[in-house]
Amino acid sequence: MDVAISAKNMYLEATALGIGSCIIGMFDRVGVKELLGLNQNIVPHLFVSLGYPDKRGDVSYSRNIPQLSIKRSVKNTVIGWIK
Fold it and tell me: What pLDDT, in 10s, does the model give residues 14-61?
């Protein structure tokens, strides 16, 4: 879980800096260990690829997010769901 949290933070910071990123979790672990010359006790779990795009994508969209209604009572809290 710590590896995933760290990768997500790297992904978010890269996005904030205008850098493209992708979290990679499926790969040949034995092959990567050999390629990078990693010790036996080091196990790669995830990779985060980083790079600048050649050009910006031609994607435009808008999204309306409704307000959440939150109701509280003494015994329990009920949170409204997005409609």
Answer: 888 888 888 898 999 999 999 989 998 988 988 888 988 777 666 565
Query: 36 is written with which tokens?
Result: 């990078």
Q: What residue numbers bound the domain in which 11 lies? A: 1-54
Q: Is residue 77 part of a domain?
A: no
pLDDT band for position 11 (50/70/90)?
Answer: confident
Contact 55, 44 (CB under 8 A): no
Measured between alpha carbons, how far is 22 from 15 in angstroms, rounded to an integer? Answer: 10
Q: Tell me if the pTM is above 0.70.
A: no
Report how many domains make up the chain. 1
The bridge status of strand 77-79 relative to strand 70-72 is antiparallel
What are 72's two structure tokens?
């509280």
What is the C-alpha to C-alpha distance for residues 83 and 65, in angstroms, rounded to an integer? 9
Is residue 19 in a domain?
yes
